[in-house]
Design brief:
Layout (H helix, E strand, L loop, with lengths): L2 H17 L14 E5 L6 E5 L9 H17 L4 E5 L20 H19 L5 E5 L3 E2 L1 H8 L2 E4 L4 E3 L11 H8 L4 H10 L3 E2 H7 L4 E2 L3 H13 L6 H20 L2 H13 L1 H16 L3
Parallel strand pairs: 2-3, 3-4, 4-6, 5-7, 6-9
Antiparallel strand pairs: 1-2, 7-8
Helix pairs in contact: 1-3, 1-9, 2-3, 3-10
Bound molecules: ligand LG6FSS7D.
Ligand LG6FSS7D binds next to helix 4 and helix 11.
Subunit structure: Homotrimer.
Pathway: Lipid metabolism; fatty acid beta-oxidation
Pfam family, one: ECH_1
Length: 288
């Protein structure tokens, strides 16, 4: 089976699987966690994460995001810019309350599958993707950014994969996403130290592609990126991108349930719960 068919078939299967669980209802009255608008000048879709105050990534946000990605795929959009509607934060990573204290196993399983689904749809999207990192992007926030093809960031924010200091081990598909952007040695240093880089450091090592001072500049730099594909047939571009990314995606698609079980086992270890707990407490105490 070719890769595009594998992606479509798996998406259909997992959607059915994911829809069969208990965590389905999104109230129609609930506020949207993901907003979509279209830049009328360029025809590019702007997708804004909107889970106040810090865009921590919950099961509900992942589900909504995946729905948006499906819509953009079927509309065959010219490109997508992913940004945040929250002040100073692109995304604060996985919602820690999904991990601590002692998550409900069924909910956690669904949460993790939707996180995988988000990555599969974003990393494997047919259309060009830009992350406009308009705030801090630790952990899962950084995962969203490195799943895009191009990264543009405002000054003075932090980005990186700080899982290890929080007692969490990044799964191989996250590690490999980072290695698709940075050389293996640099990726290992960042992951094992869990150090968050400021915008300039991130630019210097190639984790981000451009530094901009405001949204207007970000839109202009994004347009420069999107226009590099204007003379490339859409289908050829999409299949070429997916050809480059297919090994990692196929590997995860074949191993989704096991990947979820492994992560849950790690999260439920008493020592992991203890580290996450004291980290979460220190986050709360910072403001006291
Ligand atoms: C790589 C994928 C592999 C899988 C594992 C992933 C693990 C994770 O993603 S764990 C999450 C890791 N995230 C972080 O370490 C970031 C933690 N947050 C911060 O450092 C800061 O909040 C911020 C720099 C992002 C923003 O700082 P700011 O001063 O603007 O806001 P705060 O007052 O700190 O936060 C407001 C409010 O939100 C709570 N909060 C922040 N982050 C999270 C989160 N990830 N999950 C749940 N809740 C979070 C924070 O405690 C505050 O709550 P209160 O208002 O109740 O004090």
């Amino acid at each position: 089976m070719n890769f595009s068919r594998l992606l479509k078939t798996t998406s259909a299967l997992t959607s059915r699987w994911l829809c069969s669980g208990r965590f389905q209802s999104t109230s129609a009255a609930a506020q949207k966690l993901v907003d979509v608008s279209v830049d009328s000048k360029t025809g590019v879709s702007i997708v804004s994460l909107n889970r106040k105050p810090v865009n921590s990534l919950s099961l509900e946000l992942f589900k909504e995001f995946c729905g948006v990605m499906d819509d953009l795929e079927s509309e065959k959009v010219r490109g997508m810019i992913l940004k945040s509607s929250c002040d100073n934060v692109f995304s604060s990573g996985l919602d820690i309350t999904e991990l601590y204290p002692h998550p409900d196993e069924d909910r956690f399983h669904a949460f993790w599958l939707w996180f995988q689904e988000t990555w599969i749809k974003l990393y494997g999207s047919s259309f060009p993707t830009v992350a406009f990192i308009n705030g801090h992007a630790p952990a899962g926030g950084c995962v969203l950014a490195i799943s895009c093809e191009y990264r543009i960031m405002l000054p003075y924010y932090k980005i990186g994969l700080n899982e290890a200091p929080v007692g969490i081990v990044a799964p191989d598909w996250v590690v490999n996403s980072l290695k698709s952007v940075l050389a293996s040695r640099k990726a290992e240093q960042l992951l094992t130290s869990g150090r968050l880089l400021d915008t300039q450091e991130a630019f210097d090592i190639g984790l981000i592609d451009k530094i901009v001072n405001n949204e207007e500049e970000a839109l202009a730099r994004s347009e420069e990126f999107f226009s590099t594909f204007d003379n490339v047939p859409k289908l050829a571009r999409a299949l070429t991108k997916q050809q480059v990314r297919k090994n990692e995606i196929s590997k995860l698609i074949k191993n989704r349930s096991n990947d979820a079980k492994l992560f849950l086992n790690h999260i439920l270890r008493p020592e992991t719960q203890k580290i996450i707990g004291s980290y979460f407490k220190s986050l709360k105490d910072r403001k006291k």
